[in-house]
Structures are given as C-alpha cells and as structure tokens.
Amino acid sequence: MDQEMLSVPVPDVVGLSDEEAKRILEQHGFVVKSVEITKSFKDGQPEGGCRVVRQHASGQDVQLMLAFQKWVCS
C-alpha cells in the first residue's frame, strides 16, 4: 500500500447529512461500504433526512450509522 494513503486521515462527517458525508468521503478517496439507519423505540414515523451519528473506518473503507433528523410520534 502506498505510504501516502496511510497518512490521510478520515474526514469527520459526524453530524452531516448522509449525502454530504458520502460526497466528502468519496472526494477524499474513501469508499462507503455500509450504511445503517437507526430506528427510534418510540411509536411514530421518521421525518426529514438522515444525519451521520457514527462512523468507523478500516483502511479506505468507511461504515456510516445514520439517524433520522426528526421522529414524529402519534
């Protein structure tokens, strides 16, 4: 593996929208390998887009955990 690739830190995308996070990671040469969306224990429906709440990197591969911005309860 190229030494230059080893020294590139993973951009911190926690708090960003899912689309913006993916774009930034790809621009920096990282590959989003998996995306998981958390669900609320409350009854109701999600509303709005998702934001990144956790990220994990292994080499150039990144896993993202997302949560809906709003959860509307009945």
UniProtKB/TrEMBL annotation:
Pfam families: PASTA
Domain PASTA: 4-68
InterPro entries named in the record: PASTA_dom
The protein's name in its UniProt record: PASTA domain-containing protein
Organism: Formimonas warabiya
